[in-house]
Every structure is written in structure tokens, then in C-alpha cells.
From TrEMBL:
Subunit structure: The 26S proteasome consists of a 20S proteasome core and two 19S regulatory subunits. The 20S proteasome core is composed of 28 subunits that are arranged in four stacked rings, resulting in a barrel-shaped structure. The two end rings are each formed by seven alpha subunits, and the two central rings are each formed by seven beta subunits. The catalytic chamber with the active sites is on the inside of the barrel.
Listed InterPro entries: Ntn_hydrolases_N (IPR029055), Proteasome_sua/b (IPR001353), Proteasome_suB-type (IPR023333)
SUPFAM superfamilies assigned: N-terminal nucleophile aminohydrolases (Ntn hydrolases)
Signal peptide span: none
Coarse class of the protein's main subcellular location: nucleus
Cellular compartments per GO CC: cytoplasm; nucleus; proteasome core complex
Keywords: Cytoplasm, Proteasome
Family matches, as Gene3D superfamilies: Glutamine Phosphoribosylpyrophosphate, subunit 1, domain 1
GO terms for biological process, alphabetical: proteolysis involved in protein catabolic process
Compartments, as annotated in UniProt: Nucleus
Descriptive protein name: Proteasome subunit beta type-1-like
Organism of this sequence: Drosophila lebanonensis (Fruit fly)
């Protein structure tokens, strides 16, 4: 029998590097109120000629915002959809946003050694009926926030949110934000950042309440 050695394969330099991710861009803004949540995302995908969604309705009152690698986004939304169906069939009740957030944490953390190349935000209504948003790092660690921006245009969007909601320039904070004010803040943040290359031509806005999810689309500019 002929012996085998790794020297027969050749040097590693003979093989080109394999990039595990293709980052397709996208940006998200989310704002939580007492009895509502507003989440918005631009319709932008690099390396493609279409404007795929960045917001995915996972449950009756829960939406996932996901940007980055489009392949990983598709994979994780399908996994979440499967686990949510199992949860609701097992417990015979609708899954709240905080349970979806924990579920996503477990899925992402299990792949921490080769993490998903995406940025996620879960938005929806908690068991208590309050609006909640949860933002994630690449390995699945997450925290609850009142407002946040994620994705390629995060530096520009976060500054706008700090100015309009955090009121960082006034050393105070807006605790009583109406639904219409939150929608306007999200839209104005995208308008302010629309001159960057990270924002697409239109945005999708989802308003989540106890009655469900209301979706609409706004055109920022025409190409």
C-alpha cells in the first residue's frame, strides 16, 4: 500500500483564500415605546440587482431586522421560523418577543466559532404588553434597548437617534414618545443618512402593536 503524506497536497500558498462571508450591506433603526415598537430598514443589497427585505415577520407581534450576509440572513430566518412553529405548537400560545430574542441568542451562540455574518435586531411586544427591542453582537450576546441603529450606516443613524430621542445635546431623555413621533424619528434618521453609500433608495417601516404588524414602504430617492 502506498503511503500518504500531506506533502503530496502541496503548500497552502497554492490555494486562494476562501472568504466565508459576502457582506451585502443594509441598515436598521428600531425604537421601542410603551405599547408599540417601530423598526425600519433600507432596501439595499450589494452584489445584486434586487431590493430584498431586511425585515422579517417571525410571529404575530415580532419582527426580525437582519443585515449583512444575505445567505446567513436567509439561513437564520428559516431556523427561527422552524423553532417558533415548534414553540407555538408545544405551548399552544403565541410566542412573545422576549422568547424570540432568547431563541435567537441560542442559535447564534451555538455557532460562535464560525459566527453568522449578520447584524440582528429583534423587535416586538413582550409578555407584559410592552414594546421591546433587542440588539445582538456577532456571537449572539444581546441586550434590551430603547432605541438603536445597526448595519452599514450605523454611525450616521445612531447620531440622529441620539439627537432626536436621546436628546444627548440637552442632557436629558424623551421617555414619552408617541407612535407617530417614533415613525418620524426613524424616517428622518434615514433621510439624514441617505447621502451615504450605505443607504438604499427606499426603506421599509414596520409598526408593531398588540394588534399586529403594520408595514409600509417609503421612497427616499429615485435612482
Amino acid at each position: 500500500m502506498n503511503s500518504f503524506s500531506f506533502e503530496q497536497i502541496g503548500d497552502d500558498s497554492e490555494f486562494p483564500d476562501f472568504p466565508p462571508y459576502e457582506m451585502n450591506g443594509g441598515s436598521i433603526v428600531a425604537i421601542a415605546g410603551k405599547k408599540f415598537v417601530v423598526i425600519a430598514a433600507d432596501m439595499f443589497l450589494s452584489s445584486a440587482y434586487t431590493d430584498p427585505p431586511k425585515l422579517f415577520k417571525l410571529a404575530s407581534r415580532t419582527v426580525l431586522g437582519s443585515t449583512g450576509s444575505w445567505g446567513d440572513t436567509r439561513a437564520i430566518t428559516r431556523l427561527l421560523d422552524m423553532h417558533i412553529q415548534i414553540y407555538e405548537l408545544t405551548h399552544l400560545r403565541r410566542i412573545p418577543a422576549d422568547e424570540v430574542a432568547l431563541m435567537l441568542h441560542k442559535i447564534m451562540y451555538n455557532c460562535r466559532f464560525l459566527p453568522y455574518g449578520i447584524t440582528n435586531v429583534v423587535a416586538g411586544m413582550e409578555k407584559s404588553g410592552k414594546g421591546a427591542i433587542f440588539s445582538y453582537d456577532p456571537v449572539g450576546n444581546y441586550k434590551r434597548e430603547i432605541y438603536c441603529a445597526r448595519g452599514g450606516a450605523e454611525p450616521w443613524l445612531q447620531v440622529e437617534l441620539e439627537s432626536k430621542i436621546g436628546l444627548a445635546n440637552l442632557d436629558t431623555f424623551r421617555t414619552k414618545l408617541t407612535k407617530d413621533e417614533a415613525v418620524s424619528a426613524a424616517l428622518e434618521s434615514f433621510i439624514a443618512a441617505s447621502k451615504t453609500i450605505h443607504i438604499g433608495n427606499s426603506i421599509a417601516i414596520n409598526v408593531i402593536t398588540k394588534n399586529g404588524v403594520e408595514a409600509k414602504q417609503v421612497v427616499l430617492r429615485k435612482s
